[in-house]
Amino acid sequence: MADNAKETGNQAPNLQQGGVERVDDVMRAMPHALGPEKSILSSMLQNPHEYIGTAVEEKLTKEHFYLPAHGMLFDVLLECFEKGVEIELVSLVQKLIDKSLLESVGGPAALTELYSYAPNAGHFLAHLSFVKDKYTLRSIINSCNEAIAQAYDNPENVPGLLDSVETNVLAIRESAEVTRAVTIKSAVQEVMEYFAALCAGEKAAQGFSTGYEVLDRMSNGLKSGEMFIIAARPSMGKTSFMMNIVEHICVDLQKPSMVFSCEMTSFQLVQRLVFSRARFKISDMHKGYKPQKKDLLDIKRASEAIAASKLFIDDTPGITINDLRAKARRKKRDEDIQLIAIDYLQLMRSLSKQASNSREREIAEISAGLKGLAKELGIPIIVLAQLNRGPEGRSGGTPRMSDLRESGSIEQDADLIGLLYRSAYYAENEEERKEEEGKAELLLAKNRNGETGPIPLTFIAPLMRFETGAPAPEQAG
User: Fold this and answer.
1) CA–CA separation, 430 vs 426, rounded Å?
2) Are residues 462 and 283 in contact, defined by beta-carbon separation less than 8 angstroms?
């Protein structure tokens, strides 16, 4: 306890003696690693595309740097990277001069020294880890100092203080952790363990086939560089429709794919995939249904097929456009992913200064960023989006493209826009609801390279699955 007190410069209770131990006022520098800070900045200067992208994925910020000059330089490098501006020494010096920051970062000599500092860029991740660890230690010290000061103030609400201290410590842990994509094999295993517990108590197209014949014919498939927006009101099944397409491309066509889910966990998504593919109503298990031998065989085949696929799921909530781009670039490089699907656009964030002042501007930046990513990686990107309440005020609830929330930029950036709609949702009485049950429609409202119009679908609610064509009379009725 005494050692801790010396480090923080505060007096701490000596519990063994029942009093307060006198501690010399010794000023100590906060934990830091200037060498690794210089090393990672040097790597970024030498190979910006590779190492700034890695830093973004690892959630590095200017606050992680102990030396303010290093934090300032990283902030400028990040700004250049986000804008796609080429980073080299001469133009960087000019940019720092324009921002009146050149002397603050140490002048041209300091930049030249940094540029040639790192002997081996292969040490980048190890050095970045040192920098983050020292920042975590500084955060712990600051949090503890604050807690000590509040405790000495003898607050009346001790449980409230304890809760505040615990929240601050957990926040430090969360900021230090980097959420990574879940491997599909481990996710499937988790779903199957859950299932075991319950048991104990195309057509050829120019792009990738979606598995829906009419959509493939009208769109010529999902092509590289295209952004396909699937928009709907809540509870229409847009996540199910997206995952049906992902399943077809990743499992049936065996194309590596990545899903970013801001709303559902990887467990929930994989559970849907397994039981939907097996055509097994998992909800029946909660009603006492015991699966038959055929059910078990179907589930086994489905789980094996999905586990064998190269599907990567990242369920980071509220992911930023910068984080998403960094992770997608890395997966493209390491796994050659051929499709990205995002659920959903309005849950993503942008941390730019312009976006902080306007939600519409934030959505515009995210939308443009996703379209740019599709072009950069040369793959199609499916993006789910919410519609506003416009359909509710319209007879029959038929959606329109103008119902897209913050619609201007989305309409402009998208190559395809499909509005998903189920008429039963807007039925005015039980008889009408039964008549419309199972009927669904994807209204292709925008198609940059082809025709538009309605695409009839059948929605099988217990399986969370959409199928091609309108339901047969017996299904609809």
Assistant:
1) 11
2) yes
Residues 384 and 252 in one domain: yes
pLDDT digits (tens, 9 = 90+) for 160-201: 677 677 767 767 766 666 656 667 877 788 778 777 776 776
Same domain, 136 and 191: no
- Calculate helix-pair angle for 68-83, 34-46, nearest 10 degrees: 20
Q: Which H or E element spans position 186?
A: helix 184-200
238 neighbors 230 (Cβ within 8 angstroms): yes
pLDDT digits (tens, 9 = 90+) for 227-284: 999 998 888 889 999 999 999 999 999 999 999 998 899 999 999 999 999 999 888 8
Classified as helix, coil or strand, 159 is helix
Q: Pick from 300, 350, 242, 445: which is nearest to 292 by CA?
A: 300
Q: Do both 277 and 324 map to the same domain?
A: yes
Question: In this predicted model, what pLDDT tens digit does every residue of 271-323 receive, in sequence order?
Answer: 999 999 999 988 888 777 888 899 899 999 999 999 999 999 999 888 888 88
If asked whether residues 251 and 305 sit together in one domain, one would say yes
Cα dist from 102 to 35, 71, 284, 366, whole Å:
21, 13, 67, 31
- Residues 323, 324, 330, 331, CA torsion sign: positive
CA dist 320 and 326 (Å) reads: 10
Residue 421: what residue type?
A: Y
How much is the pTM? 0.65
Examine the fold and report which residue of 178, 213, 232 is the final residue of a domain before the chain moves on. Answer: 178
One domain for residues 297 and 200: yes
Domain shared by 189 and 145, yes or no: no
Full residue range of the structural domain in which residue 258 is found: 182-476
Residues 105 and 193 in one domain: no
Separation CA 252–CA 246 (nearest Å): 9
Identify the three-state secondary structure at position 424. Answer: helix
